Amino acid sequence: MIVASFQEQYGIRLRTEAANMPWDEFVDLAAGLRPDTTLGRIVQIRTETDEEMLKHYTPEMRKIRSDWQRKAAKGKTEKETQDFITSIQEVFKRMAGVRD
Questions:
Q1: Of 32, 28, 2, residue with least CA distance to 92
Q2: 3, 15 in Cβ contact below 8 A?
Q3: Are 24 and 87 spatial neighbours (Cβ–Cβ below 8 Å)?
Q4: Cα torsion angle, 75, 81, 83, 89, sign
Q5: How far apart are CA 70 and CA 98, in angstroms?
Q6: Residue 35, CA atoms < 13 Å, CB-side half-sphere
Q7: Contact, 8 vs 37, CB < 8 A?
Q8: C-alpha angle 95-98-100 in degrees, rounded to nearest 5
Q9: What is the phi/psi pair of residue 50, to 5°?
Q10: Contact, 31 vs 37, CB < 8 A?
Q11: Can you give the pTM of this predicted structure?
């Protein structure tokens, strides 16, 4: 998803064109990925909490979300799970350019 998202947004082919990209530049570009990229869409599906939006999820979207939640919650306390979800939501907000 990261490779596809970099190609979609920046036109960068990570496997061939970014071999010498400094790590901090990669991190900055990854943090700047828009929500309309492959990775952005998956992050949105995984972290959505709006019940009205969830009503309109397709079966495939529901599966993506439930698989992720199940994996994220495995062996975690409720607080750890909520903290993790909050951190992912913050990443998505940064990707969308939303500030608190």
A1: 32
A2: yes
A3: no
A4: positive
A5: 27
A6: 17
A7: yes
A8: 130
A9: -70, 115
A10: no
A11: 0.57
As a whole number of angstroms, the distance between CA 10 and CA 23 comes to 16
Cβ atoms of 33 and 52 closer than 8 Å? no
Give the CB-side neighbour count of residue 30, counting CA atoms within 13 A.
Answer: 14
Distance of CA 91 to the CA centre of its chain: 7
> 2-10 and 38-47 helices cross at what angle (nearest 10)?
120
DSSP assignment of 24-85, as one string?
HHHHHHHHT--TTSHHHHHHHHHH---HHHHHT--HHHHHHHHHHHHHHHTT--HHHHHHHH
Question: For the chain, what's the residue count?
Answer: 100
Instruction: Quick: pLDDT tens for 74-92.
Output: 777 778 778 878 887 887 7
The helix/strand/coil state of 81 is helix
> pLDDT (tens digit, 9 = 90+) per residue, 15-56?
888 778 888 888 889 888 998 998 988 988 988 888 899 999
Q: pLDDT tens-digit profile of 52-78?
A: 999 999 999 999 999 888 887 777 777
Which residue in this structure is represented by tokens 């959505």?
Answer: 48
